[in-house]
Design the sequence.
């Protein structure tokens, strides 16, 4: 089963440092509606990876597979050495605590303030109140929202909501940070700030996978770039740029 | 720490979703009020039928020439029967007085009567109205006894009607219990449906099902409990204020509308219990399908 | 064109929000079922009290030596009184036969009786039970008449009880009407609350309030109508199947449980009307606050 | 009242061709929470205007004032010669039909398919079914969603949702097109396609106001650029670029 449709994959020996591994992964949302096709990707611990590709090429779908928001139709996904298909349902929340996620549509809780939204990421792992009331304002300060702790999401601008989502994703220092278009609603200056933050987080050996359309960022960081097109990996470059066509 | 989080969360959610909290509370209140109403109806029917049955007695009319020895023998005979609860001797004078007080509104009816016109009698109360016929035939024709009276076929019919009435109120309260539960569950389900996205987000951020579920269940519990308190308050108030008035205004109904404190407290306690339980379980059940993310 | 859009929209929404549609339909069904139940209870109480009152008659017992002239004069007198509906002459033989059939279960009670032991009488039915006392005193002591009997104080109390019972069922049905409306409105409000964002978006895209409101109102109407049909079906079914059985099983209740087709149809029609109205108006009202964008 | 806080404004004579006019506009979301301050902007018919500025500088707020989603706390907004403060409430839907809007958060109707979402923009103005079934697929083809007419919004990628929002905004050929970050979730190639479309629409004398962070686009189009900072207009350039600082 793990080999279905994976004829094109070359398997590296599974190492200790392997964080995310996709083997011959395909995803059909419905019959005949293929979002990913025969994707093989290995990401080692501490890597910083950009996923690029046109709109609808399967970037978000790939990230959703890593958090087990979706299950692959074929192939296997391993995260931190564990095959997600074999992960029992009650373990899924624990996986997600180790995989921080900045969602493309933010996914903030509408009935919680900025502070409470970010604190929620710590509350689920049972952090004591003292830690929360110290760390949350700190991280919100980092993303430039130090003044807006008591606002509700619908009282924020698009970019501010996006930054709350970013703060929530790494407030609990996850092993892996997935960021889906985290700068889509941010001006270049703020984007640079966020990228510095991601870079700093990455230096503490957190694995970062970021789907993006921002070629200025990709080009300036010169990190590994994986390009998807129509659900297939068409490029995997160690020190890549956004794209040849642009 | 967890507990403090859950409580804070519950309070926050109730405040931010006031509309839903109010809807749930008022639905619970209305549903339990209806349920309480049927319970009261059941209690009234119980009181009435009990009253009726208690009033079913056998009257053994004595010959005017019955000797006191005959009467004493008869009394002793009856007293030893297990079905007989009490035997009361009603003298000719007492019979006349009772008749007078029964018809005190119509002096014309008793004007011409004097002591001796109405016979003395033994009034026999039974442990259960079911034995009426049996006991009546057993003493019929005893020495000193002129005539034995009781409702006859009427008693049988009355007993039938009573048991029917009791079954009807029982069935009604079961139906209402189910209806109340369904109504409350519906409201809670809709309330949670309105917040399905929220539940999905919590799951994606790594919250376990129980971590998400508990505040929602506490919310359901608080809303349902508040609704139950309102319902109980109204029922208890109606009991204290209204029912005693009805009893005063229409004396014939006063026994039907008087409930012992104990049965009232049991009933109201049950209402609160049902409300809280449905709130708690309803929330948990309603969440199930939204927790599968 | 508009109409086609609204209908298509309604169907689409009902399909996409099946959970809400089901919740609304079942809430309406349950609420109206309860309302229908109380209506039926009211009809039963009405039948019983009407029955009781119809049975309140004045019996004028005739002397055994009354001449047929005296009897005819009395009959004529009575017939001309506006309060009197009907006067029936019951001969001594008829009286005995009635007595026998009343106590047919207890042959002992009538074994020794023969024609003449029970007096002949005039049985006087009144247009309204209220006039009982008045008429009774008016004819008292008329030539040929031995004794006039009627319930006396008992009649008065019965009338009191009846009017109390009628008011209670009326109050109950008003309370239930309000409760049903509140329950349905709650459900609809929650359903619309769950879709407040949708309403806001429609407004931002330039839809007028009516353009948004009509499909929601039609949805409410359809859901409520479906619920009302279910409730009516159950009530009508119970009427057809259950109530006639009760009447057969307990003959004393058969008159209480028999309703004319007309009153049944009126009641069921009213149920449907109330349901549909609450669905329509409830949706419109519930939307108001979400339309202010 | 119209003059409140407008000491800095210079009023041009009101002309026929004036489409959007903000006079001394301020917006306080709450007391002390000022999102716009003394904004004076005139946009004539057929103009193409970029609104730029850092995250939270008031771009979306300004657009919301034009559709009367929010009301200014001070100053006046005129659209097509009408003072919005004096517009009766029942006229607001008619204003909005003339002002197509691409929302930053898309605002698609979740219970309608892509086709139905776009069709809704025509249905509100009472267009007959024939017109709808002809124009909607056409415009969806233009934004590259010709194949996805029957999908529901939650079955689309972020960029695809954004394109549905774009299609809905101009399907009924509005007088004014407001676009709030319409390319935030789009790859550069698709963005270029969308910008060409906006340009074409603009050439049919539709006024286009676009809030954006995408400096590549702003720089390549060389149109009028209004820059906001902390709710104030700090630059208004006829043939501008994204910014001096970046
Ligand atoms: N829930 C779903 N049901 C059906 N199809 C879906 C669903 N989610 C995504 N798709 C389809 O799968 C494909 C890949 O979607 P995905 O969201 O992964 O794209 P993406 O690369 O993130 O695009 P974007 O840059 O626009 O966000 C798209 O064609 C999309 O229409
Ligand atoms: N409903 C609201 N209530 C309170 N404050 C709000 C509300 N909406 C926006 N704000 C505040 O107003 C300011 C301007 O917001 P606006 O959405 O106009 O910014 P923007 O320029 O669109 O930013 P972005 O580029 O991030 O979308 C921000 O500081 C924001 O926090
Ligand atoms: Mg995506
Ligand atoms: Mg904005």
Sequence:
């Amino acid at each position: 089963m793990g080999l279905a449709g994976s004829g094109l994959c070359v398997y590296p020996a599974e190492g200790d440092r392997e964080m995310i591994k996709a083997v011959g992964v395909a995803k059909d949302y419905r019959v005949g509606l293929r979002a990913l096709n025969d994707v093989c990707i290995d990401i080692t611990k501490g890597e910083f990876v950009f996923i690029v590709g046109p709109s609808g090429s399967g970037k978000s779908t790939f990230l959703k597979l890593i958090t087990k928001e979706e299950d692959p139709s074929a192939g296997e996904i391993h995260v931190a050495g564990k095959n997600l298909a074999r992960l029992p349902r009650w373990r899924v929340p624990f996986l997600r605590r180790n995989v921080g996620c900045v969602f493309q549509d933010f996914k903030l809780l509408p009935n919680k303030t900025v502070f409470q939204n970010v604190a929620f990421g710590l509350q689920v792992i049972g952090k004591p109140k003292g830690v929360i009331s110290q760390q949350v304002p700190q991280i919100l300060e980092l993303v430039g929202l130090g003044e807006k702790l008591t606002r509700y999401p619908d009282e924020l601008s698009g970019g501010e909501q996006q930054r709350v989502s970013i703060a929530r994703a790494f407030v609990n220092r996850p092993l892996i940070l997935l960021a889906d278009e985290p700068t889509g609603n941010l001006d270049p200056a703020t984007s640079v700030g966020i990228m510095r933050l991601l870079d700093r987080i990455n230096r503490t050996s957190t694995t970062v996978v970021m789907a993006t359309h921002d070629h200025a960022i990709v080009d300036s960081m010169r990190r590994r770039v994986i390009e998807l097109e129509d659900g297939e990996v068409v490029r995997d470059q160690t020190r890549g740029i956004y794209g040849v066509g642009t | 720490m967890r507990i403090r989080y859950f409580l804070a969360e519950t309070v926050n959610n109730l405040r931010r979703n006031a509309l839903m909290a109010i809807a749930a509370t008022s639905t619970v209140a209305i549903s339990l009020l209806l349920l309480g109403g049927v319970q009261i109806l059941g209690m009234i029917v119980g009181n009435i039928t009990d009253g009726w049955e208690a009033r079913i007695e056998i009257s053994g009319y004595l010959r005017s020439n019955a000797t006191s020895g005959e009467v004493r023998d008869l009394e002793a005979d009856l007293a030893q029967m297990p079905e007989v609860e009490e035997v009361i001797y009603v003298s000719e004078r007492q019979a006349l007085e009772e008749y007078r007080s029964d018809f005190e509104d119509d002096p014309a009816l008793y004007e011409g009567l004097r002591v001796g016109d109405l016979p003395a009698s033994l009034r026999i109360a039974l442990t259960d109205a079911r034995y009426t016929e049996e006991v009546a035939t057993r003493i019929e024709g005893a020495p000193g006894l002129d005539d034995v009276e009781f409702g006859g076929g009427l008693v049988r019919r009355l007993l039938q009607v009573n048991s029917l009435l009791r079954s009807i109120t029982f069935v009604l309260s079961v139906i209402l219990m189910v209806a109340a539960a369904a109504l409350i569950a519906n409201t809670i389900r809709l309330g949670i449906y309105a917040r399905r996205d929220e539940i999905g987000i919590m799951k994606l951020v790594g919250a376990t099902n129980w971590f998400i579920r508990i505040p929602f269940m506490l919310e359901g519990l608080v809303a349902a409990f508040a609704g139950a308190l309102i319902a109980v308050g109204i029922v208890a108030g109606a009991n204290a204020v209204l029912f005693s008035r009805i009893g005063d205004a229409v004396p014939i109904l006063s026994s039907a509308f008087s409930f012992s404190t104990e049965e009232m407290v049991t009933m109201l306690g049950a209402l609160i219990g049902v409300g809280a339980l449905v709130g708690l379980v309803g929330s948990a059940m309603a969440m199930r399908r939204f927790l599968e993310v």
Summary: The mean pLDDT of chain A is 90. DSSP finds seven helices and ten strands in chain A. The helical segments of chain A are 59-66, 92-98, 114-123, 129-142, 158-170, 188-203, 215-221.
